[in-house]
Design a protein that fits this description.
about 350 residues; mainly alpha
Length: about 350
C-alpha cells in the first residue's frame, strides 16, 4: 500500500523537476510580465482606496479631523511604493521575485498543443480579454493555465506523499482516504481558479448593466446641451470610478493617444461584452462615420429603454429574492412549531 502511494508521488516529483529544467527565459519573462501587470492593477486599487479615504477625511475639520485621521490611518502609500519598486526590479530583468511554482505549466503548454491551444485555454483567453483587454489577454490566459496545471501536479504529489506517510505509520484507513480523495480535491481546487474568473466576469457584466442607464443618461444630457461626443464621453467617464466608467476612461485615454475611434470603441465593446454597451458604441461609431446629427435623440431613446430594462431587471431580482427566502422562512416556521408543540406534548405525557 505504501508503494502504491509513494511510487506515483516520486514519479510526479521527478516529472515536475524535469519540467523545471525545461523552462526557458521566455517563460520567466512572461511570468514576470504578468506579475508586473497584476501589481499595476493592485496599485490602481490602492490609489482608489487612498483617494476615497482622503475624500472621507476632507469632510471633517479641527479636532474631529485629527481623530478620524488616526482612526482611518492606512499604509496604502507604503504598499504602493513597495509594489512600484518590485515592478522596477522585474522590468530591469531581476526575475528573482517571480514564483517558480507556475513555471512547469508553461512548459506543458509549449510541449502539448492540446493544452496551449485547447478549448480550456480559449475559454480562459476569452474571459481574460473581457477582464483585462485584448492586449494582455494572451499572457494572462497562459499564466492562469500554467498555474492550474502546475498546482495540480504539486497538489497531487503532496497528497500522495502524505498518504504514504500515513500508511507507513499504520494509519491505513486515513492514508487510503487521502490517496483517493486528495487528487480529486486538488484538481477541483485548481479548477476553482478558472471558476473564480468566470464568477468575476459575470459580476462585472452585471455591474456594467446596472451602471449603463446612468451613463447613457449623462451622455444624452451633455450631447443635447451642445457638447461634442468626445468631450461628453470624457466628462462622463471621469464622473465616477466604477467598472463601466473606468472602461470609458480607458477608451478616452486611447482616443487621446491617437488610437483610431473604430479601434478604441471596438475595444470598449470587447471589454464590456454586454448588448447595451455594444449598442451604444455602435451608435457612436455610426455617428462618427456617417455624421448622424440625431445622436442626441438616439441617446435619449437609449436611456429610456435602459431605465425600463433596469426596472424589469429589478422586479425579476426581487422575485428571485422572494423565492430564495421561502426556504429559510419555512425552516423558521418549523422551528417555531417545534418550540411550541414540544412543551405541550411533554405536558400531555405528564398526565
Amino acid at each position: 500500500m505504501v508503494f502504491l502511494a509513494l511510487f506515483p508521488a516520486t514519479v510526479l516529483t521527478a516529472f515536475w523537476l524535469i519540467l523545471m529544467s525545461m523552462v526557458t527565459r521566455e517563460d520567466w519573462i512572461v511570468a514576470a510580465y504578468n506579475n508586473v501587470f497584476d501589481n499595476r492593477l493592485e496599485i490602481e486599487k490602492l490609489r482608489q482606496k487612498e483617494k476615497a479615504r482622503i475624500e472621507k477625511l476632507a469632510r471633517y475639520h479641527g479636532s474631529a479631523s485629527v481623530i478620524f485621521r488616526f482612526l482611518f490611518n492606512s499604509n496604502y502609500s507604503k504598499k504602493i511604493t513597495a509594489l512600484e519598486k518590485l515592478n522596477d526590479r522585474l522590468q530591469n530583468g531581476n526575475l528573482k521575485k517571480t514564483s517558480v511554482f507556475p513555471m512547469p505549466g508553461y512548459v506543458l503548454q509549449r510541449s502539448f498543443s492540446a493544452l496551449g491551444k485547447g478549448s480550456l485555454h480559449k475559454k480562459i483567453a476569452t474571459k481574460c480579454s473581457e477582464m483585462y483587454g485584448r492586449k494582455h489577454a494572451a499572457n494572462k490566459a497562459r499564466h492562469m493555465l500554467a498555474k492550474i496545471l502546475s498546482f495540480s501536479i504539486i497538489g497531487i504529489c503532496g497528497t500522495l506523499l502524505i498518504s504514504a506517510i500515513l500508511l507507513s505509520a499504520g494509519l491505513a484507513s486515513a492514508g487510503a482516504a487521502i490517496a483517493c480523495i486528495g487528487p480529486i480535491l486538488t484538481v477541483t481546487l485548481a479548477y476553482t481558479m478558472y471558476d473564480d474568473l468566470s464568477v468575476r466576469v459575470k459580476k462585472r457584466r452585471a455591474a456594467i448593466s446596472r451602471q449603463f442607464p446612468n451613463v447613457v443618461s449623462k451622455l444624452a444630457l451633455l450631447m443635447t446641451s451642445g457638447m461634442i461626443m468626445d468631450r461628453a464621453w470624457k466628462e462622463t467617464s471621469y464622473s465616477q470610478d466604477s467598472e463601466l466608467y473606468l472602461e470609458m476612461r480607458r477608451t478616452s485615454q486611447e482616443l487621446e493617444n491617437l488610437v483610431s475611434p473604430e479601434a478604441a470603441y471596438s475595444g470598449f465593446i470587447s471589454r464590456c461584452c454586454t448588448k447595451e454597451t455594444a449598442k451604444l458604441a455602435s451608435a457612436i461609431m455610426q455617428n462618427l462615420s456617417k455624421g448622424n446629427t440625431e445622436i442626441g435623440r438616439l441617446l435619449k431613446d437609449m436611456a429610456r429603454e435602459a431605465w425600463l430594462d433596469r426596472r424589469h431587471t429589478a422586479k425579476r431580482d426581487a422575485e428571485k429574492a422572494n423565492s430564495k427566502l421561502m426556504i429559510p422562512t419555512m425552516l423558521l416556521f418549523v422551528a417555531i412549531l417545534f418550540i411550541l408543540l414540544v412543551p405541550i406534548a411533554m405536558n400531555f405525557n405528564g398526565f
